[in-house]
Amino acid sequence: MSQATFHAPRRKRKVYESYESPFPIPLSHDCYMKDFRICKGEIINNNVIVRSIEDIELLYGKGFFGKGILSRSRPEYNIEQGELRLRWKDSKTKFPVISSIKYQRHVEWAEELLKGQGIDSKSVNKILGDYTSPIIQPDEKDETVNLERSVDELQHESADQLIPTIKDDMVREGNPDHDPLSQYVLDNPDTSPTYTQLDKEVLEKLHCHRHDDFIVHCGCKPEVQTVQTEPEGMSVMEGMGHEYLMVEEGTEDLEDRDEVKKLKLVCRRNPFRIFEYLQLSHEEAFFLVYALGCLSIAYKKEPLTILKLWEIFSAAQQNFPARYMVYHHFRSKGWVPKVGLKYGTDLLLYRKGPPFYHASYSVIIELVDENFEGSPLRPLTWRSLSGLNRTTMNVSKELLICYLIKPPGFTEKDTDTPKCIKKLKIQEVIVSRWISSRERMEHEEL
Prior knowledge:
The protein is 26% helix and 20% strand.
C-alpha cells in the first residue's frame, strides 16, 4: 500500500491577520519560567471551557485551538450591530450601538433571572428601572442629552451638528445626580459592608450560599456581589465595570402631520451581559495538557491529572483514544486539525490555520491490525464512500483515510492510558475517484 502524497494547500484570497508562531516547547526550567504560561480551563457538561480573556487570546492566537461559543470560529463576539454602527458613524461614540428591540430582549432576560431568584415583581421593576435608566451628562441635569437625527437626515447630516457623546469623566458612578444606582452603594466600603437604602423586603429574600439559608436567618452580612442591583447572571465579570451601550430609539414628531419618525441614541447600562468563552474539543484540550503542558483543566474547582482526563474523555466520547492519536499525529506534523462533522468526516486538516488556508483534507479514522482487518469504527459501503468522496471533492478537498495499525496482542485494555500512543503505527491513504475515460485518454497520449 502506497503512502499518501500531500499536495500544496489552497491559500485564501483575502487574509486579514498575521501569522503568530505556535506555542513554545520549554527545553529548560529557565525557558519555562520566562516564556511559558499555563492557561486554565474547566469541564462543564462534558465540555472544556476557557473563560479568561488572556487565555482565550493566547490559545486561539497560537495554534487556533478551540472556537468561540458565540462566534463561527475566532472568539470575537460583540454585542454591537454592524449596520447601526455604519448608520451612526458620524457620532464618533466609542460605546456599542444596538437597537431598542435587542436591548429590550436583554432586559427581559434580566427580569426572568431576577424572578427566578425569588424576588417579587415590584422589586424587579424598581431594580431594572434604576439600572436601565438613561445616563445623563453632568452639565445637563434638567434634560436628557441624546444624539438625535431624523431618518431622512441620517445620510446628509454632518458630524458637526451632533451633540457630543458621553465621555469617561461624564459618567459619575455613585453620584446621586447622575447615577440612579447610587442609593445602593456602600456608605464606606473600607469600614463596614452596610447598605444605606437597601429594601427590607429584598433583603429578607436574599439567599446565603454559605449556610443554604436566607441572610436574615443565618446572620451573615450581604456581600458586594449579592446586591440586588447586580444579581448573579447580571453581574459583570470580576475586575470589570458596567457595560455601557448606545441604544437606538425611535420617536415621532407630533407637530408634523406626517408624523416624521426620528431616531436617537440613548446611553444605558446593559442589564444582562453575555461573555464569549472558548470551547475546546476533547482532543484539543488533552493535547494542550499532555503534549504541550500549557493548560490546566479543573472539574468543580479541582485540578485533574492526565490519567483522570484520559478516563473522563474516553467515557464521554466514543473512540476518543483513536481520535486523539490521529489528532496528535497531524498536530505534530504541523497541521491544524479541526472537527470535520459538517463534511461527514472525523477531522479537517488546515495548513497554518483556518484564517490563511482552506481545509486541504477530510480525514476518516480507522483502527485495524497489521493485515488491515478489524471492526471498522465507521462502517462504509461502496455507495457511502463514493458519496463521501464526491462531497469532499465538491468543496475542493481530498478524502484521506488514516489507519491506526495495532501491534499483535494489542487489546482494549491498553487504551486505558495515554501510553498506547507509542505502540500504534499510522498509515495514510488518499481516496481518489477513478474515471475510465480520463484513464483511457492518458494511455492514448503515452
